[in-house]
Design goal:
Length: 162
Amino acid sequence: MIVKWKFVLILVGVLIVFCCCESGKKIQNQGVKDIYGHPIGFLFKDNRCVYYSTDGKRITACSGGVDFNGGRDSLSAYLGRKYINHPSYNYQEYNIYEYFIVLFDENLKIREVRILYRKGYNNERFFYDSIFVNALKNTTGMWHKTIENKKWYTYLHRQKIY
């Protein structure tokens, strides 16, 4: 009887792993789009991604490999200050997260900043989108490499918008 239960548990475990792997492959094959429906790319297991720039150029980039000099929390604080101190700031509470993807070249010059996902609202344009995108573009020179000798890098950042 114990052997039968062990067999059933092993079978259930194998089925769960198989289903998880299959759903991961589907997500990987579907690719990622920005909030406006434009393709961004596909992620591979070996820290690479195929990135589609806004002009349609296909780039093989290192997923990650760069970090903000003060760390992720420092970047969030920097962007929060830029947002609150902007003349368009309207004191309205949004309480949402936005996900940004930043494309760097080999010299860590920022080539593109795109909004990947907005949690909590639909994909319409908000006044603060350009504030965050421009603030991220202005961080050139505030980054360092964690992986050397790559031609392109991407960085994913999540920003809380109060």
